[in-house]
Amino acid sequence: MPHNDLHLASSSARRREILTTLGVSFTWAGVDIDETPLPHEPVVGIVRRLAVAKADAGRAVRDTPVLGADTAVAVGDRIFGKPESMEDALAMLGALSGRIHQVVTAVALSCDQGVLTAISTTNVSFRKIIADEARAYWQSGEPAGKAGAYAVQGIGGIFVRELSGSYTGVVGLPVFETVGLLRQAGIELLTQA
């Protein structure tokens, strides 16, 4: 199978950048799925289910392998999705301030072999965030649409004291796990022409 026979079921610019950096040629488009968590669903279950749903939705209209991913931020059993308002974002940042949280990203590849999945979990330690700083960060526009109301690859990186795990997993597409799935589907990287 040629290395460029892939579709990304996401409109995320960060996920596209990561795939491009890997030298993967691909098409992309966002998919519309219900992202409502199920009652008592653990964070790993949520992200895996949503990544699979995204890959399956893309595969339903394509005959090529489709990559889907989903990311959630969690402290214990509490899951932080995308903020719905400034107040929501400030509450999230306040809850993450001075604490360690987990960023869990699931990757799913729907292909001829079925649906292959992988999970990346990263521990992220935040320094204390003062209220005025959180408000100014919201005003930058960056937290909107980001799980946990921050982007580690942007201004939000100033809050990170320490990260243990996959940086690209926190960004939204863990390279190690993604490459493993692509190879299982016969999509090789770093091949000679």
Task: Describe this structure as you would to a colleague.
It is a single chain. This protein is of the alpha/beta class. The protein has one domain (7-184): Maf protein (Alpha-Beta Complex), CATH 3.90.950.10. The protein contains 6 helices and 7 strands. Strands 1, 2, 3, 4, 5, 6 and 7 form a 7-stranded mixed β-sheet that branches. β3 (66-75) and β4 form a beta hairpin. The chain is globular.
CATH architecture: Alpha-Beta Complex
Taken from the alpha-carbon principal axes, the silhouette is globular
The tally of structural domains comes to 1
Radius of gyration: 17 Å
What top-tier CATH class fits best? Alpha Beta
Number of helices: 6
Beta-strand content: 15-25%
Tell me about the largest β-sheet: 7 strands, mixed
Question: What distinguishing features does this structure have?
Answer:
193 residues, Maf protein, alpha/beta, seven-stranded mixed β-sheet
Question: Topology, please?
Answer:
Elements: E1 7-8, H1 13-21, E2 27-28, H2 43-59, E3 66-75, E4 78-80, H3 86-96, E5 100-111, E6 114-126, H4 131-139, E7 160-164, H5 167-171, H6 175-184
Parallel strand pairs: 1-2, 1-3
Antiparallel strand pairs: 3-4, 3-5, 5-6, 6-7
Helix pairs in contact: 3-4
In summary, what is this structure?
The protein contains six helices and seven strands. With 193 residues, it is α/β, with parallel strands linked by helices.
